[in-house]
């Protein structure tokens, strides 16, 4: 399956955005990373933010879809149940071009059936720099190439024991309050002892993360702590090392603990995203 990582596109919007906005409609290349949220091209973000509200309804192939709108300074997205339905109904994720006209009296979305490659799994190579997971390795921030239909991303090479897998299945599917992909990960020495906790690019792309900002993070949705983050050149989200280490120590997070990490939108101006960890023990 075609992925944005192989297409030489912008690292923020996963699209080609180096052209002048015409202000009437915009095109989006629908990658597999957009299953849970479609990212508006950077050059069209200001127009999108102006013409949409908290939600927008558009018609595509004689069906109406109501999607939620996140409007940020660095990234804007369409997400929610309506977006996922639009993505699934039209079999998106193979590099098709979708043209949106959202500022018209009757907003529309048209799909051009262009795709990169032939859509086969064999054409989706592992990204350079995405290593095999090893709890003793310093390079453990790789990500899965697909979500296996579960709506989650697993650290590449992750293996769960019987108890952990039973815990995970008991938590899925996550409620509608969660957005984007959930992330299943086994905490490593690098995460806990060095404080280098990263969120994979595939997960970050489906979230309303800015280039840098603040998340509210908790275990099981209790006692949220604010932690600053930044986006690396390769699109991953990295938490502030000192604050993450303090958080992990105070919540009893240890090396080799398997966790399910989910994300929710924040209603606070000083917090971009809520991050909720659930231990698989």
TrEMBL record:
Protein name: TF-B3 domain-containing protein
Entry keyword set: DNA-binding, Nucleus, Transcription, Transcription regulation
Record GO cellular component, one term: nucleus
Region (Disordered): 120-150
Molecular function terms, GO-annotated: DNA binding
Pfam families cross-referenced by the UniProt entry: B3 (PF02362)
Domain TF-B3: residue ranges: 46-107
SUPFAM superfamilies tied to this protein: DNA-binding pseudobarrel domain
Organism in which the protein naturally occurs: Triticum aestivum (Wheat)
InterPro entries: B3_DNA-bd, DNA-bd_pseudobarrel_sf
Localization per record: Nucleus
Highest rank taxon of the organism: Eukaryota
UniProt KW Lipid metabolism keyword: no
Main subcellular location: nucleus
